[in-house]
Amino acid sequence: MLDGVENVKKEHVKIFALGGLDEIGKNMYVIEYKDEIVVIDAGLKFPEDDMPGVDYIIPDVSYLVAKKDKVKGIFLTHGHEDHIGSLPYIMKEINVPLYGEKLTLGLVRAKLEEAGLLRQAKLIPFSNRDQVRFKHLNVSCFRTNHSIPDSIGIVVDTPEGPIVHTGDFKFDFTPVGPKTDFAKIARLGKKGVLALLSDSTNSEREGYTGSEQKVGNALFDIFQQAQGRILFATFASNVYRLQQVVDAAVRYNRKIAVFGRSMEKVFQIGQELGYIRVPKGTFIEPDQVQRMPKHQVVIICTGSQGESMAALSRIARGQHRQIQLIPGDTVVFSSSPIPGNTLSVNRIIDQLFKLGAEVIYGNEFDIHASGHGSQEDMKLMLQLLKPKYFIPIHGEYRMLAKHKELAVQVGVKEKNCFVMENGDVLHINREEAFIGEKIPAEIILVDGHGIGDVGNIVLRDRMKLSDDGLIIIVMTIDMKRFKLLAGPDVISRGFIFVRESTDLIAETEGRVKKLVEQLLEQRVKSWANIKAQVIDDIAPFIYRKIQRRPMIIPIIMEVDKAKVEQEKETATSQTFKK
Amino acid sequence: MLDGVENVKKEHVKIFALGGLDEIGKNMYVIEYKDEIVVIDAGLKFPEDDMPGVDYIIPDVSYLVAKKDKVKGIFLTHGHEDHIGSLPYIMKEINVPLYGEKLTLGLVRAKLEEAGLLRQAKLIPFSNRDQVRFKHLNVSCFRTNHSIPDSIGIVVDTPEGPIVHTGDFKFDFTPVGPKTDFAKIARLGKKGVLALLSDSTNSEREGYTGSEQKVGNALFDIFQQAQGRILFATFASNVYRLQQVVDAAVRYNRKIAVFGRSMEKVFQIGQELGYIRVPKGTFIEPDQVQRMPKHQVVIICTGSQGESMAALSRIARGQHRQIQLIPGDTVVFSSSPIPGNTLSVNRIIDQLFKLGAEVIYGNEFDIHASGHGSQEDMKLMLQLLKPKYFIPIHGEYRMLAKHKELAVQVGVKEKNCFVMENGDVLHINREEAFIGEKIPAEIILVDGHGIGDVGNIVLRDRMKLSDDGLIIIVMTIDMKRFKLLAGPDVISRGFIFVRESTDLIAETEGRVKKLVEQLLEQRVKSWANIKAQVIDDIAPFIYRKIQRRPMIIPIIMEVDKAKVEQEKETATSQTFKK
């Protein structure tokens, strides 16, 4: 079915993702009916190691920009970066109302203010008692439990039936903070749910995810037994966990010092908005830590994922200005390493042990509970809502596939389960469902100070530079007289040389000299041509000799014009942003 | 105590590692008494992502080379790469007898033959009935269970008492293959053990490691239920696992095709030496796979760790010449991803799901059991042997630290437990133990075709090149007349440019020009000096502008001498190997 062409007999609701499928990160889900579009979440994603130098990745919203007038609003399920992080970039392109719970909007407000976009933004409080009515679509929500307060699931009521989006969730029967709104969820299920979009993150894990209360109990044990200082690292956004640390600190007479910008911010916003209660006098300034008796101190810090510039990592490296680790310190990693961070975290733990700390980490002591449900949580959600159609979201492909298996186990027809990819458009109504067209769902790479079109050439450059180093071949040419004045000279970086035998540099220089002189004799005028031929000749030559493929950069300097040829076909033709 | 100086009253045995402590890999342990040295294992290590372009890392044996005449032999605990992998390199420097069990020597033989070193090597069969007597030291061994057949623990009897080295082990009460020699171990404990060196790999895991038999049962279930083809990936060296696959295949009427060089080699050597029994007619050729009915095929392949060129990875990418994945295929990952490989493995699994395969992986189905003992296995070994001194080995620091905790729990005095690093020399006898001198325990990096001294400069270069790209600043200078003839010109690679505003390239060029003209006016003759000042000026300037730290490479071309200054302080002063 073509976009925009509607069959006179059947209306369909269109559901698709611009981010969040086949990945963890940059969640953005779109529900479209006739001339109305509702967006759920606007997140960012952190790149993996195969994108060196890229800070984050955001969804491409060109589809939404093209249909600006149809977009009624962005509904935010909670305040994690993978759900709100791309707003500062997206808001520059489409400025629509943002709906969210109190803490979510508080975090969004801080972000937009930092980006200078707050003034023109419309932030509308949205909670479980609210209904937002558009012409065809009504949007409401229900409370859920997650690892940050004020998480909600979204209900989009359409003329074909309700579509439920769980947001990130788990079921916690003894939560810190408000309970999941079971009654509302059950009522939705009873009335009938057309389609369910549900969080697939932990679909590979059996059983239920543990309660936050178990962690609280474990913390009390640790705080009671630790004889020296406690250093406590956790996800900064886990306000509930921080409340439990505060409670344990108060119970066992420890003052709290906070290190790490994101951690300080959360305590600030959290207290302002009433999400964290810290009795007066509990906090101490960083510089007071030294003066306190050791058993009366707990240091809450960033670094639970081994982030190299975070407080705990610097402490482990002995590079923190204010805190030096002392033998007898207890360090708690109240977290779970995200795959990809495991090696960094392990190294920090090794280093802390070497410095004489007692380190508590891993699964042994209930010091962490995930914010995402496991298989039984997911099956419970499916049972409560009994959707006709099921779309697993928020997961890498295998997580989505496993979640689909669970749905089938619980009774959803296999043909009504759709494991999709970003950009696949699902058309549904009461009678049928099919995947129609594919919308381009590109990614935008953000680096340094601004959004850059990093593009594949620059990234491939970087990867190549890393793997086998590079060879620079410089020569000075008088282009008026077609004469080679100086060079070619070979300079290398990132090469491994072995001391024995052949002078490969001299060989390379000789070879290039011969080639270039030949080309100049033929009055070849084009720099690009000369350079391309040098690369085409030298690359296989080098590989034959040493089985390595360094990047080869020929540089031609013209003495007459005092100017080096600018390569128009590469990144250097673009200019810097100030 | 100085090396070589012995106190007239007290003799000590010296124990140290040249590799294997504070790391997983390149195991090499040394026991020295008076004029005798016995070495246990000679492994290699695979680099992590922070060493791009390096193939493997081997221990530096300069200490042993300097004392060549004292080295009586290298005793090999088993045939894994991290225990025998550096032999082809080390044997070039010291040629001493190699002792090992049958399969171990079989694998060593193949390695040395490939390296052209077999003819001069002395390979001496060594098993649990053997005693090798030197002047002061006697060496014997005992059978253990591990994930490769013929694994042994080593006993070095010294005048001060026996030293036991466990090799890699777990306790398996229902093993495939011979049982652990409990009786011998218990007897050793009864007689008294001076020091125990024990495998720490899984010291963070509670309980016992599961039996290989559980895996066999799980495989039978999978082979019975799978309706299409089975693709089975596991560690090539796990001969017991391969035997279980063969048994399941035979039981459920499936023919076996083997893909992947290391896998083919293991089946070949394994059958030759009698470690794998495969009934005639079980194997089929790769090209016969297509013609078999799907439910009668199992494909055993490499790629369980997501290695990009391994068979399964190429199949997942659709790049395998002979095997295309068909929906309905069952893929079994009979393995556990080594930390650092998790992302690669996850990506392969995602891809296989996308191609319609049913993928069995992870902890759900008992499809894998580790070859290393968990906490209870370790405590059992400690209880059986009751050593006076304890040295945890074969682990990253936190694993060693945890293993020490277990030893203390079991009753070894804390002051008699030594968590050491490579090169720390432990001096022990019946009365005392202390860490004395530190031997240099450098690492040797192996790249491409030969052993290269990669060194830190080249590696840092590579890392830097990758992260933020690079800027090349080229200029042509007449050094006789101290004149800047051409440039400076800025060329970049791996940079992200943002299209708007300031021409940072022009700014950089202007800045360098000013600086260099200044230096030339002052008659600065030294290239190194000029370049260093350019870097020192430009690096902070670039960072202030765009928060990036690209590598900066100033290049000075002398037109007069037609020669670019060779940087003597960097890798370029070394020459290539042909």
From TrEMBL, chains A, B:
Keywords: Calcium, Cytoplasm, Endonuclease, Exonuclease, Hydrolase, Metal-binding, Nuclease, RNA-binding, rRNA processing, Zinc. The keyword Hydrolase applies. Substrate binds at A236, S237, N238, H368, A369, S370, G371, H372. Ca(2+) binds at G53, D55, D447. It comes from the Bacteria. Its EC number is 3.1.-.-. The keyword Ubl conjugation does not apply. InterPro entries: Metallo-B-lactamas, RibonucZ/Hydroxyglut_hydro, RMMBL, RNase_J, RNase_J_2, RNase_J_b_CASP, RNase_J_bac, RNase_J_C. GO terms for molecular function: 5'-3' RNA exonuclease activity; RNA binding; RNA endonuclease activity; zinc ion binding. GO terms for biological process: mRNA processing; rRNA processing. The active site is at D199, H372. GO terms for cellular component: cytoplasm. It holds the Pfam family RNase_J_C. Binds 1 Ca(2+) cation per subunit. Seen in 1 crystal structure, it is not clear if it is physiologically important. Binds 2 Zn(2+) ions per subunit. It is not clear if Zn(2+) or Mg(2+) is physiologically important. Zn(2+) 2 binds at H78. An RNase that has 5'-3' exonuclease and possibly endonuclease activity. Involved in maturation of rRNA and in some organisms also mRNA maturation and/or decay. Belongs to the metallo-beta-lactamase superfamily. RNA-metabolizing metallo-beta-lactamase-like family. Bacterial RNase J subfamily. PANTHER family: RIBONUCLEASE J. Unclear whether it forms homodimers or belongs to a larger complex. According to probably does not form homodimers, while shows homodimer formation. Both reports show RNase J1 and J2 interaction, probably as a heterotetramer shows it is a component of a possible RNA degradosome complex composed of rny, rnjA, rnjB, pnp, pfkA and eno, while finds no evidence of an RNA degradosome complex. Homodimer, may be a subunit of the RNA degradosome. This is Ribonuclease J. It comes from Caldalkalibacillus thermarum (strain TA2.A1). The gene is rnj.
